[in-house]
Design goal:
This protein is mainly alpha-helical and 304 residues long. The chain is built from 16 helices and two strands. The chain folds into three domains: 83 residues, no CATH class; 53 residues, no CATH class; 91 residues, no CATH class. Bound molecules: heme C (9 copies). The site of one heme C has 18 residues, from helix 13, helix 14 and helix 15.
Length: 304
């Protein structure tokens, strides 16, 4: 058995022998940071120690905190450890984590993301030493994590028609990628809002609502070009089916109002005709007849 004294001597000598910027190995850190160490066994980052195959600068504690030689030689101190997160800028933290994670997290996307713009970087959402979730080392459960900053969204998920996020049926990350996304292929790419993407660069909605995917012989241009959000509020709505407006026809007439190229006659929906008599309440429910509103394989007017 090694006496305490010999161990201390070892700890103090090792860095002196190897030079101040040397790697001392994670076992040395255990002496003074036992609380951190004992939890570290369960951390996915422990794999680098367990495998014994990584280079020192990629192994264990020093993989994130940098070479510990000087820190150990001076028996602690914040300024002696190269990567003391409490002293690092957001950009430095981002870069530190990305040295290993640029495969899981696209550098280009995260650097342009709204989170990075707002200085919300890795360690705001992930907690390496005090994680509250078993998967993904999150600093708190996903919902609570997101609601810390995006509180207004919570109320949207309490509306009468909603995706059941608050109930735990689906997660924010079913639709969003907190690490940023490439420009969207819908809405001419102008408003990604970190909305994630389904395999073919489509809206994430299609991961679950597959029947709306198509391709249809007759597409409703609104969906391909403007996206599902042109008619639906993705989080929640006071109106049934998550619609943006209380009555279906007010949704339709937002576009089919005679402007632009809507309708065959370039004049919007013919309000008074055999097909459309708006004075009759029956006609106000457009989808009573236009049942295939998300696209049809048989009828250009989506009637069947
Ligand atoms: C001889 C004891 C000792 C050893 C060995 C030691 N530390 Fe420390 N460490 C300290 C002390 C003391 C502090 C507190 C400094 C303070 O709060 O001012 C500290 C603080 C830190 C911090 C916090 C910096 C911050 O952001 O506030 C990190 C990270 C750290 N140590 C990492 C390590 C790593 C990695 C190792 C192994 C390579 C290690 N320490 C080994 C004593 C030690
Ligand atoms: C995956 C990167 C990573 C690894 C590996 C890592 N740390 Fe940390 N450490 C951090 C981050 C990030 C913080 C800042 C605290 C936070 O934001 O959660 C931190 C904070 C600390 C602190 C300051 C006290 C605290 O709990 O906040 C100490 C001490 C520390 N680490 C020691 C260690 C030791 C010892 C090891 C190895 C057993 C280690 N770290 C491994 C990323 C890492
Ligand atoms: C705004 C909060 C947030 C920020 C900032 C953030 N993450 Fe995440 N990260 C998450 C959430 C939430 C998940 C869980 C995703 C899921 O449930 O599918 C996750 C998952 C992960 C995963 C595992 C799954 C995957 O997508 O590969 C890794 C690795 C990861 N994050 C690393 C990072 C790194 C590295 C950074 C900084 C460069 C970072 N994260 C920044 C919230 C964040
Ligand atoms: C030295 C390389 C390295 C650094 C630096 C590093 N990681 Fe990791 N990280 C890994 C490895 C390796 C894994 C384990 C992957 C696996 O399980 O196969 C991992 C796992 C994770 C996971 C868990 C993914 C899951 O599926 O549960 C998260 C979250 C994560 N890292 C976030 C971070 C954050 C945040 C930072 C910066 C503070 C960071 N990492 C820095 C190498 C690193
Ligand atoms: C069903 C898919 C879906 C889920 C689940 C979801 N979102 Fe969204 N979210 C979207 C879409 C799509 C947009 C873009 C809306 C638009 O551009 O009109 C958006 C926009 C946002 C915006 C930007 C709003 C604005 O006005 O700029 C925030 C913030 C947001 N979501 C946060 C969250 C949070 C937090 C959660 C989880 C609690 C969440 N979202 C869950 C689909 C979703
Ligand atoms: C992770 C799977 C998932 C994703 C992604 C998803 N949804 Fe849903 N959606 C559901 C489930 C499940 C329901 C059923 C409502 C419930 O009981 O929670 C639903 C309900 C709906 C409804 C209402 C149906 C009704 O009968 O009231 C609409 C509209 C809808 N989703 C549109 C969208 C849009 C638009 C998007 C993308 C912004 C989207 N969904 C993304 C799973 C998903
Ligand atoms: C042009 C407007 C419009 C667009 C764009 C649109 N929807 Fe709808 N959607 C509607 C209307 C209107 C209803 C209600 C139909 C009814 O009352 O019968 C509806 C109903 C739904 C429903 C519930 C009923 C059903 O058919 O399953 C889901 C789910 C849905 N939409 C998903 C989507 C998804 C996913 C997208 C994007 C791919 C999308 N919608 C785009 C207008 C639209
Ligand atoms: C975001 C704008 C938008 C909304 C909202 C919208 N549409 Fe459309 N719709 C279009 C566009 C664009 C076309 C293609 C027009 C063209 O090719 O001239 C189209 C085509 C159609 C067509 C095929 C006939 C034609 O003129 O090509 C019908 C029928 C139709 N829409 C019905 C509806 C109904 C019913 C609603 C409400 C549930 C609705 N639309 C909501 C944009 C919209
Ligand atoms: C009672 C059934 C019915 C209702 C309700 C109905 N439509 Fe139609 N719609 C039709 C039929 C049938 C056609 C094909 C007419 C034709 O070929 O002249 C049509 C054609 C269209 C067209 C393409 C031709 C054109 O006139 O530009 C659009 C756009 C359209 N409807 C939109 C709407 C909107 C918006 C509403 C709700 C305000 C609505 N429809 C309600 C039956 C209906």
């Amino acid at each position: 058995m090694i006496s305490d004294q010999t161990r201390w001597a070892g700890i103090l000598f090792l860095p002196l022998l190897l030079g101040a910027q040397s790697y001392v190995g994670s076992a040395v850190c255990k002496t003074c940071h036992p609380d951190v160490w004992w939890k570290f066994y369960k951390n996915p980052h422990y794999k680098s120690i367990a495998s014994g195959r990584e280079r020192p600068e990629r192994t264990g504690c020093e993989g994130c905190h940098g070479a510990g030689g000087e820190h150990v030689a001076s028996r602690g101190g914040k300024t002696t450890i190269p990567h003391a997160f409490s002293l690092m800028s957001s950009t430095q933290i981002l870069n530190d984590c990305l040295t290993c994670h640029s495969k899981d997290v696209s550098k280009a996307n995260i650097r342009r993301s709204a989170h990075t713009d707002a200085d919300v970087v890795c360690s705001r959402c992930h907690s390496i030493h005090k994680a509250q979730t078993r998967k993904f080392l999150l600093a708190s459960t996903q919902k609570n994590l997101c609601y810390q900053c995006d509180a207004t969204v919570r109320a949207q998920f309490d509306m009468p028609s909603k995706h059941r996020v608050n109930e735990g049926v689906i997660d924010c990350t079913d639709c969003h990628n907190p690490h940023g996304t490439p420009a969207a292929t819908w809405r001419t790419g102008i408003r990604p809002r970190m909305v994630g993407q389904a395999p073919d660069n489509e809206e994430p909605c299609l991961n679950c609502h597959e029947d709306k995917r198509g391709p249809f012989v007759f597409e409703h241009a609104a969906i391909r070009v403007d996206g599902c959000e042109s008619c639906h509020s993705p989080h929640g709505s006071m109106n049934s089916k998550l619609l943006r407006r209380p009555v279906v026809y007010t949704v339709c007439l937002e576009c089919h109002n005679g402007a632009g190229t809507f309708g065959v006659a370039n004049a919007g929906v013919v309000i008074q005709s055999a097909a459309h008599n708006m004075l009759d309440p029956r006609f106000q429910n457009c989808t009573l007849c236009h049942v295939r509103i998300h696209g049809s394989n048989t009828d250009p007017n989506f009637l069947r």
